[in-house]
Structures are given as C-alpha cells and as structure tokens.
Amino acid sequence: MSRSKWRSERLSQLGSSIFAEVAGWKLSAAESGLDIIDLGIGSPDQPPSPAVRQALSEAALRSDMYAYPATKSGLPFRRHAAAWMKHRFNVELDPMSEIVTLLGSQDGLAHLALALCDPGDTALLPNPGYPIYAASLALAGVESVLMPLREENGYMPDLDALPDEEWDRATFILLNYPNNPISAVADLAFFERLLDKARRHDVLIVHDLAYSEMGFDGCEPPSILEIPGASDQAVEFHSLSKSFNMAGCRIGFLAGNKTAVGALRELKANIDYGVFDPVQEAGIIALQEAITGPKLPKAGKLYEQRRNTFLEALRTEGWDVAAPKATMFVWAQLPPMQWSQDVPWTSRRISQEMLKATGVVVVPGEAFGSEGEGYVRIALVESEERLKEAARRIGSFIRGQ
Ligand SMILES: *Cc1c(COP(=O)(O)O)cnc(C)c1O
Questions:
Q1: Is 123 helix (H, G, I), strand (E, B) or coil?
Q2: Domains of the chain by range and CATH?
Q3: Among 8, 109, 171, 231, which one has the highest count of C-beta atoms within 10 angstroms of its own C-beta?
Q4: How far apart are the CA of 205 and the centre of ligand 1, in A?
C-alpha cells in the first residue's frame, strides 16, 4: 500500500467507507431537488428534558464552570452514575474506582483497545458490529476475531463455535445488547453463559449498553453487572446520548472492573481533561430525574410507537419486516423487489437506488460487516407522519413504479 504524505495508513482502516458513500448519495439526491427523509443516522431527534436544559444553561452562566474539569475530578457525576446504576439495575459500584466519566461512550470505545492491549493482541468482535469497535482495534494495532451474529441463533454469537485457542488468545470480547444495528436483545441467561466462558479463558467482557432505556413492549434490557461478581470479569459502557437525548452533549461512562476502568482513566488523563462541567451538571439532573424525578416516559416509548406505525405502513406496501424489541433501528431483510432482476439486489444497490428514486436514506447492512449483507438499517428518527410518507415512497420503489 502506498503511503501518502501527512495522512497515516491507519486512517484507511477506520470505519467503513460506505458511510461516506451514503453521504455522497444523499448529497446528490438533495441537489437533484428530492425531498430527503434521512433514516440513516442514529442520532435522537428529540431534545433533553426541560430540567436538563435548564441545568445546562444555569451552569454555563456560572463563572466557576470554566476550569479544566479534571482538576476537580468530577466526583458528583460519578456518584450520580453509581446511584442510577443502583436504582436501575440494583448494581453497587464504587464511584471512585469503578466508574470513569467519558466524552460520550464513543470516546471510551475508541480508546479502549489502546488502554487494554498491546499491538499484536487480539479481541473478539461481533459481525455485524458498530463501526467504532473495529476502528478502536485498528488504532491500537490489535487483531480482531469476528463472531457472526445470525438470525438462526437469535443474533447472539455462538460462544462454543469459536475454538478454545481463540478464546485463550483474546484480551477482551465486545458485545452490544440491545444491539446496533440489529436491535436484538440479550437476557441474563445469555450473559451468565458468556461470563462463565469468559472466566474460563480469562477474557474481559466489554458490554456496550447504549440502548438500556430503549426497550419496547415492557422490555427492560439488563446490565451484565447485575450478575453477582460480574465486575471481576466485565465492564459496561453507558451513554446519556440515547437514554436522555443528550447526544450532542458528549457524556457517558464506563463501569465495572477496576483494572480496566483504571486503565482507561489513566490513558484519558493523558488525552483530555474531562467533560465540560455544565454538561456534567446537566447529566446529574438527567440521572436524578430518572431516579426520583417526575415520571417521564422512557426514551424507548417514542420509538416503540414509531416502530408500530412504520412497520404497519411498510407491511401495507408489501414489505413485511421483523419488529425490533429495542433501540431506534429496524434491521430489515431486503424487500421483495418486483422489478429489474438483471443485477443482484445487494444491500448497497438497494440503498443507493432507493435513495435516488425516493429520497429516503437507509444504511446498507454491509456497512457494519460482511454478515450485514442482505439487510438494511432504518433509523426511526423522524415523526410518524414522515415515516408513513417514507413507507409509501419505499412501496412504490419496491413495486418499480
Ligand atoms: C450511539 C452509540 C454509541 C455512542 O454513544 P455516545 O455515548 O454518544 O458516544 C455507542 N454504542 C452504540 C452501539 C451506539 O449506537
């Protein structure tokens, strides 16, 4: 591979180029005058609660909020994070040693392999998977071993399919339930089996629980830390982005195993000086509201209604899609295309042609790894009216009208 001046080769290993491609398709479609309905992005379209916005504004007006946050250590936020973990999952954590505050969980995910591994180590990743997982390994020169998530296994990895040598070699295994992009949910029985396997091979479990508050139909996604003693072998990422509509604020935390939490804290102490204090104040209010505040509907409620409306509309249009149990994503098997069978309808081709014809943006499943082929990811990040409109346009596209 040729190396260009002032641009590392490493950058080419970060993320999938398909996301850039989709952005290009979207731009051309917008320039051609199409009304764009963007169901490609995974950012909540709602604001945080009024109390959270109030707290952020008031803190921003104070004159003592502008020092480097790290110099004040951010203990109040971590205390509230611990209190929320206790309230929500009945998990006891020491805010000093078992929680590190992050500039969004993405920050922690991106730096995780650098903090835990040395070049040449290996880690186990899901395929398909959220793109930063593989990027984190690429940054650290860590090798990935991919575990397919397939429908026939309920989109769980087959823990015994991987040879014992791979388990023994791995530093950590990274999983994410409720899952992005697949929106599958894991139960505690699965986490217990995983923990048992990880203990036997001394592999750290890293669980990304960004969608804990986005379960549907009464589902309350569990934390792996609920299992007694799990902190010996596991850490878990939490994010206020999806749970409390604070994606732009950049705040989250890693909780669990002291050694791993400490390693990430140590690395980050060299890289950044913490989360802006007014954002920490706003985060505290969000957590407090969830614990003792007025009963606000969980973030998932809105997406559950949108899911119902959208899937019903799609069904009417001839595309029957499995209903997600959580998250804000529909992981849809490619629709029955009723025209033009000359070239195979890959997830990439369908996404591109659909966008060109209808202005509706979806992400090809392939963007999340080879196992994503045959699917597209549709984000429920528009109003029910716009989702119905998107379904109507998709229907015409499927029928070749
Ligand atoms: C959105 C998302 C994140 C990142 O959340 P931030 O806390 O905003 O960085 C992490 N993991 C998954 C699976 C996500 O979808």
A1: strand
A2: 3-47+297-398 (3.90.1150.10), 50-291 (3.40.640.10)
A3: 109
A4: 17
